[in-house]
Amino acid sequence: MAILDRKLRRDLWRIKGQVLAIGFVIAAGIAILIVMQGSLTSLQETRNAYYDRYRFADVFASARRAPESLAARVAAIPGVSRVDTRIAQDVILDMPSMIEPARGRILSLPEGREPNLNWISRRLNRDFEFGRPDEVIVNETFANAHELFPGDQIVANINGRRRTLTIIDVAMSPEFIYAISPGELVPDKRRFGILWMGRQSLEAVFGLDGAFNQISMSLTRDANEQFVIDQTDALLAPYGGIGAYGRSDHQSDAFLESEFMQLQTMSQILPPIFILVAAFLLNIVINRLIDTEREQIGLMKAFGYHDYSVGWHYMKFVLAIAGIGVVLGWALGYLLGGMMTDLYGTFFKFPFLLYQPNPATFVVSGALSLGVAAGAAWFAVRRAVRLDPAVAMTPPSPPVYRRSIAERFGFAKHLGAPSRMIMRNLSRWPIRAGLTSLGVSFSVGMLIMSLFMVDSIDEMLDTFFFNTQRQDVTLTFTNPTHDISREDVQNIPGVLRAEMFRAVPVRLRNGVNSERVGIIGVDDGADLTRLLDVNNREVTLPLDGLMLTDQLAAQLSVQVGDVIDVEIMEGRRPHLRIPVNGISQEYVGLSAYMNREALARVMEEAPSASGAYVRVDANSMAQFFQEVKKTPALQGVTLRSAALEEFRRIMDETMISAISFYIFFASLIAVGVIYNSARISLSERARELASMRVLGFTKSEVAGVLLGELAVITLVSLPIGCLLGYGMAASIVDQFGTELFRLPFVIQPSTFGWAVLIIITASVATGAIVARRVNNLDLVAVLKTRE
Amino acid sequence: MTESRDICFRTRDLTKVYQTGETEVFALRGVSIDIYDQEMMVLLGPSGSGKSTLLNILGGLDHASSGEVWFHGDVLTASDDTTLTQFRRDHVGFIFQFYNLIPSLTARENVALVTEIARDPMSAEEALALVGLEDRMDHFPSQLSGGQQQRVAVARAVAKRPGVLLCDEPTGALDSSTGVQVLEALEQVNKELGTTTIVITHNAGISDMSDRVVYLADGQVSHIEEHATRKPAKELSW
Ligand SMILES: Nc1ncnc2c1ncn2[C@@H]1O[C@H](COP(=O)(O)OP(=O)(O)OP(=O)(O)O)[C@@H](O)[C@H]1O
Ligand SMILES: [Mg+2]
User: Fold this and answer.
1) pLDDT of residue B151
2) What are the φ/ψ torsions at residue B120 (nearest 5 degrees)?
3) Does residue B185 lie within any of the structural domains?
4) What residues have CB less than 8 Å from B189, skipping those under 6 apart?
5) What is the secondary structure of A242-274 as a DSSP string?
6) What are the sequence ranges of the domains in chain A?
7) Which of A19, A494, B159, B199 allows an S-S link to B127, with CB 3.0 to 4.6 Å?
8) Residue A160: left (phi > 0), alpha (psi -120 to 50), or beta?
9) Higher pLDDT among residues A691 and A562, named by residue
């Protein structure tokens, strides 16, 4: 046995290049699984612990102004365990380092005690209590972005008055793990700040003594969330409630969940590809080994080795390679997992982040890989076990070749002998050639699947920022108003064009499906925001009825012409039935559109505005913002260029590392597959290639025969890989769609081009390595032996 | 027969040393020999005496450790790999014990493999006819007997009309009557094309068909035997 083990070690060492190549493919699969599952569990556990420790609420609701006494009635709803009320208001912040205003969200905190729910994690001045009325706690991200520390001051435009606020501490909150300001796509740490202030001072500022405008509740374990939501809505309706919602509609949590879902999906798609490719490689390696060792097997058996010890010997060979891959993968996964989790930590703001690689993932991935490896080798090993010693020791007859299909059909008549050798070799082992091609195809596909996201996001940005949202600035008024007219906005210095809009919170219902969204009322002929149909062509908003975005229509299962229930949650709060007269395509969020006058008509009110879309003269921006910062009735300013820039910055940061990650792993498959198949061909045909050298063929001519085969395999795999990538991208688009955003299914030709180029480069590099071996063929040694 | 005694190969003090770890193995220890154009020469000697080594160096497959080899006035021992490849391509035909046919090519294509890169080849059909295989041209090696495979190898070696034909135990894997067929082919090529032919064999009987027999022992030429007349190959048997 010890001798056999020594043989095993030498055999492994002899094909160390192949061992490593296969090991790396397995390692990649395992590492990806561990990284993704590890980050996923770490993030989930961290989030759960955070929610738990800081009492993140389960249901949230806003109203216009509700008496504090209502809290007790909400608390009495069956299933509610704890209730917290507060005051919330969006304001404009005037930051000295920015010409444009920033957006602030002020939230009240009870003085002198912890709130019942939604605690914050104080970071610096834990013990410092609210004392004077203008003291605030600022969220850490915003504070860091502006280098704000306790003792510093910021200026806010609160309820029409400029107030200087003093920072007493910075904090984090489970409500803002992913802090996005309304109407934006990504968190903007400089332009969106959360300010916590004492409840009493806020009551005074906003005239909300003994009242609240936000309420949240935690639920008991057996609570029925929908029931609580409906009951809360009913209680809040008289006070301007705009619809309660659960965690799944909580913006920060929804983003986390969608990220988790993506991680989960990728961790299910990618690792199996790697393990299957590795299984295929192991299969050809072990088959080749057993072929070359036929006589040795016969000999061992003739000397009295048992069948099972022969079988176990070869099985061990395969398991050793897989084992090397598993251990490499574990190490790589452990290291990268920590890095990946840290990377997530820069997007999702947690006060603590516990990287806990999941031990079960290690065990399962290892066991699965070894199992798959054993399965891949099963038939080859069984062949070795069943070999009859007498048969094994007779030399194998030369492999049987035939004319390739192409030749039989009369193609390739004028091909030279080397080209015929290539074609006949491919058709001699069609399954192997096919699987090799498929392996390379998968790496092409994987590349396309990852690279296409750039195209998709570009398309999303293009549609969002250049085709639909064409305004430079969106102004949001504190309350819907008749007092500000289009002319008023038009008169702000620098404004080139202004269009008013009305946003109304509603609940849309179609049978059992319901969604809480906003109806945006825009004027006929509005040009700054446009609506596109599913073919990206501009559509005009009908003068009557609703226009839904495609995602919303799908979620409500509504088609053009259907009439749906609309519960307006503002003003007189009428319940209406309105026809859906159009469907538009949008990739971000859920929205419904209506003509502004028609909206006012159904709401039985005079047309009013919630804000304005504005185009501003680029040279007058400073003046424009100067004026805007002084305007009391504004609660928010959204700057398109800033949002776009921020989005691009984040994409650059994340996509570059994600894409290099995918390029690396996809190339690994290509290199592993091509290298192995080249080395196997080389070992099978060393004799034949050496003969060619003896006959006077040059090194490059001989290498050409070997590499020509690889070239054909690679070339065949490119179109297949492109198709595969197309399909994989389509399924990603399908799987990643959420209410928050969808990826448009767009693959630019250049993406196919890059994927193809990367794989060709990897193949050429691998070919060059193998070609060196052809150069070093020992002619004399090869010809001396029989085979 | 050997009235035009132009020298084809000339070797002087040719040695070949294999370094295996600590020990040195002398495969050739100073071989100096002239091989004439158009002669048929047989190399005899015990196993390990250096026959194959000598043949491989002459054919430009292997490098000598010291000493020199000339081929028609060119110094082969000073040539680099590219020159040696070109030398093989233009002048040398090889035949080995184990045929070394390309299994994925038919008999005709195995020969064509060489004629495609040769300067003034005969056609593949012609070469195969020379060895009596005109009716087996489209068979793959796996469909041919050992003797037939070896005759394809002979056809492949002679198709480019090489100046020299180097054969390392061409009949080693064949029975007597099949072996004779191969030797007849060699004889015919030597006579009709005037190809200098060197044949290694363990079979002293074969040496009767040669002009000269060179005996190697322990890496050196022990003696040389000249034949006034050659025995036709078909009268040989073993
Ligand atoms: N690659 C090598 N490494 C070490 N020694 C070698 C090598 N090749 C040949 N030798 C040694 O060189 C000597 C001559 O070998 P060669 O093959 O020329 O013998 P030969 O006369 O052809 O024998 P045979 O009749 O058995 O074929 C032998 O002693 C052999 O052991
Ligand atoms: Mg020999």
Assistant:
1) 87
2) -135, 65
3) yes
4) B130, B154, B158, B165, B195, B197
5) ---EEGGGSHHHHHHHHHHHHHHHHHHHHHHHH
6) 1-58+252-346+358-396, 59-251, 426-469+643-787, 484-632
7) B159
8) left
9) A562
Closest partner CB to B113 (pick from A399, A417, A698): A417
Q: How far is CA B171 from the centre of its chain?
A: 12
Q: Chains A and B: how many Cβ contacts under 8 Å?
A: 89
For residue A741, what is the DSSP state? B
Give the structural domain span for B209.
38-60+92-233
Q: Which residues of B223-235 are buried (b: 16+ CB within 10 A; e: fewer)?
A: eeeebeeeeebee
Stated pTM of the model: 0.79
pLDDT tens per residue across span A335-384: 888 888 888 888 889 998 888 888 899 999 999 999 999 999 999 899 88
User: Which residues from B are below 8 Å from A783, CB to CB?
Assistant: 61, 96, 98, 100
Q: Which H or E run includes B3?
A: none
Q: Using 50, 70 and 90 to split pLDDT, how confident is the model at A391?
A: low
Find the CB nearest B96 among A416, A692, A783. Answer: A783
Contact A337, A38 (CB under 8 A): yes
Distance from the A697 Cα atom to the nearest Cα atom in chain B, whole angstroms: 7
B27 within some domain: no
For A674, phi then psi, to 5°, come to: -70, -45
Task: Give the number of domains in chain B.
Answer: 1
Residue closest via CA to ligand 1's atom 24 equals B47
Query: Which residue do the tokens 């009859």 mark?
Result: A388
Q: Do B207 and B44 form a contact (C-beta atoms < 8 A)?
A: yes
In a domain, B56, yes or no: yes
- The CATH number assigned to the domain holding B218 equals 3.40.50.300
Decide if B109 and A400 are in contact by the 8 Å CB cutoff. no
- Provide the token pair at A560: 């053009």
Token digits for B45?
Answer: 């000697």
Distance in angstroms (rounded) separating the CA atoms of residues A578 and A598: 11
Instruction: Report which DSSP code applies to A544.
Output: S
Which has the closest alpha carbon to A501: A183, A99, A160?
A: A183
Of the pLDDT bands very low, low, confident and very high (cuts 50, 70, 90), residue A600 is: very high
Does the C-beta of B201 come closer than 6 Å to ligand 1?
A: no
B84: in domain: no
Identify the helix (H) or strand (E) that includes residue A105.
strand A102-109
CA–CA min distance A380, chain B (Å): 24
Share of chain A above pLDDT 70, in %: 96
Q: Is pLDDT of A779 > 80?
A: no
Report yes or no: A453 and A661 within 8 Å, Cβ to Cβ.
Answer: no
Token output for A575: 């319940």
